[in-house]
Design a protein that fits this description.
Helices cover about 40% and strands about 15% of the residues. The chain has eight helices and eight strands, in the order βαβαβαβαβαβαβαβα. The protein has an eight-stranded parallel β-sheet. β5, α5 and β6 form a beta-alpha-beta unit. The longest helix is centred in the middle third of the chain and has 14 residues.
Length: about 220
């Protein structure tokens, strides 16, 4: 079974390097130093036009900080999805309530705004309470994937919960391990958790994705 690598990219240079390294799917965002924010429409359009065969999943996150959004912030997020939907292949977003539970109302609106595009609930999941309950909520709301490090600083450290979530999901939703993923631990994370997709930025000591790191990651997970 071929395993899928999703490369996190936040600039034109990183996208170019990801493609050069063999990536077929990216998460497109901006400001990785803030753990990722919504990319500009100009960047998304450039990538869509330049690499028509590349699968682009766009992050929708209007600011840094927590994942509890005001009604006004939610409206901005919905507008961003509306703008980006024709030129991307997936949406990555999500919202929480102040008590740490999934914001069902806001997340439902975000999923509905994505329309037929697959929807990944992002790493807000890593700070939600009751992860097993929350997973069932996300399945109910129609999410396609959950990007998570297993509520630990890295996916390697969170492998136990990731494995439990993969078993619980039973094919109803894709568990996408991310956080601290590199060529030396990716295959171990996949084998330990039973996941078939993995997420990493493939950087080599810099702020940009490195094509050689992408190639090594791909080789490691599909050897």
């Amino acid at each position: 079974m071929k395993r899928t690598l999703e490369v996190c990219t936040a600039s034109i240079a990183s996208v170019d390097e990801a493609v050069k390294g063999g990536a077929e799917r990216i998460e497109l965002c901006s400001a990785l130093e803030l753990d990722g924010l919504t990319p500009s429409a100009g960047l998304a359009k450039y990538v869509h036009t330049t690499y028509p065969n590349l699968r682009i999943h766009a992050l929708i996150r209007p600011r840094s900080g927590n994942f509890v959004y005001s009604p006004t912030e939610l409206q901005v997020m919905l507008r961003d999805i509306e703008i980006l939907r024709p030129i991307v292949h997936g949406i990555v977003s999500g919202a929480l309530l102040p008590d740490g539970s999934i914001d069902r109302q806001s997340t439902t609106q975000l999923v509905n705004a994505a329309g037929s595009l697959p929807f990944t609930f992002h790493r807000a999941f890593d700070v939600c309470h009751a992860p097993r309950e929350s997973l069932e909520t996300l399945i109910e709301l129609g999410c396609t994937r959950v990007l998570t490090s297993g509520q630990q600083p890295t996916a390697e450290q969170g492998s136990q919960l990731l494995s439990e979530l993969v078993t619980q999901s039973d094919g109803r939703i894709i568990i996408l391990p991310g956080g601290g993923v590199n060529a030396s631990n990716a295959i171990s994370i996949l084998n330990t958790t039973g996941a078939i997709e993995i997420h990493g930025s493939a950087r080599n000591g810099s702020s940009e994705t490195d094509s050689h790191e992408v190639a090594k990651l791909l080789e490691s997970i599909n050897a």
